[in-house]
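Recall that a protein's primary structure is simply its ordered list of amino acids. Everything else, from secondary elements to tertiary packing, is in principle encoded there. The following example makes that idea concrete.
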Amino acid sequence: MTAQDLDALLTRVSMADRKAFAALYSATSAKLFGICLRILKDRAMAEDALQDIYVKIWKRADAYQSGRVQPMTWLITVARNHAIDLLRKRRTAATDNAEGDETRIDRLETHEPGPAEQLLQKDTRAQISACLDELADEKAEAVRQAYLYGATYAELAAHFAVPLNTMRTWLRRSLQALRTCLSR
């Protein structure tokens, strides 16, 4: 499913369109479940989290701003943030049972990047963007779709009208070129 299709579905979901919501769930639930499972490392928790995530998406689809962010990126962010919140709650519950200064320090710990990290991330993004610009347009787009938006090899092969193995080769060689560029 293309970004435009997901965008249209999210717009319809924001208007309480149940069929669009079902289509959105079918198109994205496997990816979002994988993200939850990777973060939570517990299948039952990931399944529960996925259900909560889609309730959030249903209620907050109007918060999605078309054109500002890719639809899959927005969906992944909702899923990731929810899973991390659950992980933090689980960790906080475990530390509430413990006593001592260490638990107070854990509660004060933040996972937000500081100013130095933010600056480094900005520089890294600029360097990656410059390296992507060195690739052929279609190969750079394939890399973006695969690694930023979660497109599969098959989806990319269909989109660019190339054989599946050709797409795998494009991505492998493009990543090698990016690695070389980033090491300069």
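The longest helix spans residues 71-96. The chain has two domains: 1-119, 121-184.
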